[in-house]
Amino acid sequence: MTKAEFLAAARAAALESSRASGLPPGVTVAQAALESAWGASQLARRAQNYFGIKANGKLPWIALPTLEYRDGRALWVEARFARYDSMAAGFADRDRIILTVACYAAARAGAADPEAFIRALAQHWATDPRYAQKLLDIYLDNKLNQLDQHSALSTQHSAT
After folding, report:
1. First-to-last C-alpha distance (Å) of the chain
2. What is the rounded distance in angstroms from the CA atom of residue 139 to the CA atom of residue 151?
3. Considering Cα of 116, then 38, then 134, then 80, what sign does the dihedral take?
4. Cβ(27)–Cβ(118) below 8 Å
5. Plot region of 71 (φ>0 → left; ψ -120 to 50 → alpha; else → beta)
6. CA 81 → CA 26, 29, 54, 57, 73, distances in Å?
7. Domains contained in the chain, CATH given
8. DSSP states of 26-94 as a string?
9. What whole-number distance in Å separates Cα of residue 132 and Cα of residue 117?
10. Per-residue pLDDT of the chain (160 residues; tens, 9 = 90+)
11. What is the rounded CA–CA span in Å between residue 53 and residue 93?
12. Nearest to residue 95, comparing CAs of 6, 18, 10, 9?
């Protein structure tokens, strides 16, 4: 999958999940790009998991090595990750997690401000201490803020 192909597919999945969740689709695309190496990661290719979502319960999963940060040190560990049937299913589950898990309350509260949303989300989503800045850089460098502005305008027009 090329970067352009990834962006087209991720934009469509993010807009679909955002219509239901109200979360900023541009941030969703940026996060998917960061977490999945623009769709090239094994987790994305083999499990349609573009966000590094860990498996829980009896849902389908795949075990893969992952880089975690503990006490400021990077180390490789094997983890069980959720397996999805499609990109859209993974994007919808990511939004569901943010909307329902208590630790993401600050992210939910800041959803109208993509930078605040990114910084609050990063506090709990990843162990990488530079995660928020990496996510923000992808978001701005790829002009994904335009997707959020367009989405907000569409929401305003459909509400009137």
Report:
1. 39
2. 15
3. positive
4. yes
5. left
6. 24, 19, 4, 11, 22
7. 3-48+85-152 (1.10.530.10)
8. HHHHHHHHHHHTTTTSHHHHHH--SS-PBP-TTS-EEEEEEEEEETTEEEEEEEEEE--SSHHHHHHHH
9. 10
10. 899 999 999 999 999 999 999 999 999 999 999 999 999 999 999 999 999 999 988 889 999 988 888 888 889 988 999 999 999 999 999 999 999 999 999 999 999 999 999 999 999 999 899 999 999 999 999 999 999 987 664 544 344 4
11. 9
12. 18
- Amino acid identity for residue 141 in this structure: D
- With CA atoms as reference, report the closest residue to 142 among 68, 50, 38: 38
- The answer to whether residues 128 and 69 touch, using CB atoms and an 8 Å cutoff, is yes
Residue type, 104: Y
Q: Which residues are catalytic?
A: 68, 93
Buried b or exposed e, range 144-156, using 16+ CB within 10 angstroms: bbebbeebeeeee
Sign of CA dihedral 106, 68, 53, 134: positive
Look up residue 37 and give its two tokens.
């190496």
Rounded to whole angstroms, the Cα distance separating 30 from 141 reads: 10
